[in-house]
Amino acid sequence: MKKTQTTGEADQFKMQQIENMSMQNKIGYSVDSFSDKKVIGYLEEVKSKIVLNELTKRLIYIKYGKLNILNGLKSIIAEICDCLIIGNNQAAITLTNHLFENALKQVLIRWDSNGKRFNETQRIDETLRDEVKEYDGKCLSAVIEKCNRKGLLTEIEAKKLIELKNNYRNSFSHASYSKLFKNASAVLYSANISNPVEITEETANISTVPFLYLAAQKEFAKRNALKYFFEVYTIVNNMDEKLLDLYPETKEALQKYKENNITMKKNKCFKLLSLFLLKFTTMVRSNRNE
Questions:
Q1: Alpha carbons 142 and 140: distance in angstroms, whole number
Q2: Does position 22 have pLDDT exceeding 80, yes or no?
Q3: pLDDT, position 201
Q4: Average pLDDT for the chain
Q5: How far apart are the C-alpha atoms of 31 and 38, rounded to whole Å?
Q6: pTM score above 0.85
Q7: 212 vs 220: CA distance, rounded Å
Q8: Degrees to nearest 5, angle at CA 284 with 282 and 286
Q9: Which residue(s) pair with 195 in the sheet?
Q10: How far apart are CA 278 and CA 96, in angstroms?
């Protein structure tokens, strides 16, 4: 059985990887060249980006919440939430792209297997081999269409995902400059050092100027990363609910859990109401006696 790494061993392994990479690629800097002051300053900067508000609470709720069948995707979802909380919006979009495509394929693999479970009579790498082979490498448009035809996506959801694919996934994951800012332009002002008073105005197409594209991409991510993630996560959550039909025992257990929670909440409310009425009655009696 493979030995599980401890946190200390994992950190040591990472440091060894950095040292090996530095030696192989001859990187012109090392950890030793950074002072503790710089490191602490960076960590404080990251910490300052974390704000306790309703949005942060919602992201943390999603980070630690559970999906019913697709819970294997939670590590990706958790990292996206981390990125959004500290404002790493371009990283959040890139990882949401991965969640987007991965989730759809995972759903189809589960659905086509008709809820097949791993068992002792078959090798674990053969249980879902045919379903994985069917969708591995399949283009995203075809996967969206397949999910729609199988009833895993509604018409509205399928159209939304095609829109998201064109606006986010293709432009960010494939660095397609012309797709994201096809008709966008920026006004630039320039002057010559020899004659700084004479200022020239120029309108430039953002998609054909690499440094302008990257600056615009950063701003685009800042404005849209959160919205994009919530849209994808909502659809993933909806598909996860539909997969429960393949696992009736799990569905029944979840239903009982929800019903028990509702009953507990009702009992709690009843106890609080009873306590309030008791205090109120005692107070009224006390006033009458006075």
A1: 5
A2: no
A3: 87
A4: 83
A5: 11
A6: no
A7: 12
A8: 70
A9: 192
A10: 53
b/e per residue, 174-188, with b = 16+ CB within 10 A?
eeebeebbeeeeeee
Query: For residue 141, which amino acid is it?
Result: S
> Across residues 205-213, what is the average pLDDT?
85
Q: Are 221 and 89 in contact (CB under 8 A)?
A: yes
Residues in the chain: 290
- CA dist 175 → 62, 132, 167, 191, 207 (Å): 29, 27, 12, 31, 11
Residue 1 pLDDT level (bands cut at 50, 70, 90): very low
Closest listed residue to residue 224, CA positions, set 178, 174, 169: 169
The yes-or-no verdict on residue 67 having pLDDT over 60 is yes
Cα distances (angstroms) measured from residue 44 to each of 8, 50, 86, 91: 23, 10, 12, 20
Residue showing tokens 């939304």: 160
pLDDT of residue 23 exceeding 70 = no
90 with 172: CB under 8 angstroms?
Answer: yes
